[in-house]
Amino acid sequence: MMNFPLLKPSKGKVFVNGKEVKGTSGDIGYMFQRDHLFEWRTIKQNALIGLEIQDKLTKEKEKFVENLLDTYGLGEFKDHYPRQLSGGMRQRAALIRTLALKPEILLLDEPFSALDYQTRLTIADEIGTILKKEGKTAIMVTHDIAEAMRTKRKRDYMYCN
After folding, report:
1. pTM value surpassing 0.85
2. Across the chain, how many H-helices and E-strands are there?
3. 107: which DSSP letter?
4. 73: left (phi > 0), else alpha (psi -120 to 50), else beta?
């Protein structure tokens, strides 16, 4: 899969909401296979890091992130450290970190691969619900068709070998 915006397309152009994407873009959020949470930062601090790096952190955006944490079951854990959370909770925190930047499209690179099978199914359901509620489009890379089916969203499939 072409990992835009990191790689230039070999042919054609990439558009998001009618605008051509030529480099990195705030319109595209990326969620890695692993959560990549910083162990020395609290869950809330991890969720805010993208805004801090981009120098876009405001009280309003901090409140938005706190609302995301509350809405998706992590509000009471916002002052906990990643090692104190389950794998599924860590993945939710990673998704909230991505959503904090308000991207139009999310690229999910095997977001459940680090989890045991039962947790993967549960988190796939939860993330599908979150994406629907937030009105986000996601492109998900997975080797497990059951994961894709559980996101409860309109799906198109692309097979590559």
Report:
1. no
2. 5, 5
3. E
4. left
Reply yes or no on whether the pLDDT at 1 is more than 50: no
* 140 phi-psi bin (left φ>0, alpha ψ -120 to 50, beta other): beta
Query: Which ranges constitute the DSSP H helices of 23-159?
Result: 43-53, 59-71, 87-99, 117-134, 145-150
Which domains does the chain possess? Answer: 15-150 (3.40.50.300)
**Span 28-62, pLDDT tens digits:** 888 888 889 999 999 999 999 999 998 999 999 99
Distance CA 24, CA 155 (A): 25
Q: Order of strands across the sheet with 137-141? A: 28-31, 105-109, 137-141
Strands 137-141 and 105-109: parallel
Per-residue pLDDT band for 3 (boundaries 50, 70, 90) equals very low
Q: Assess contact for 21 and 5: CB atoms under 8 A.
A: yes
At residue 81, what is the residue type? Answer: Y
Tokens coding 154: 């309109």
Q: Retrieve residue 109's tokens.
A: 């690179």
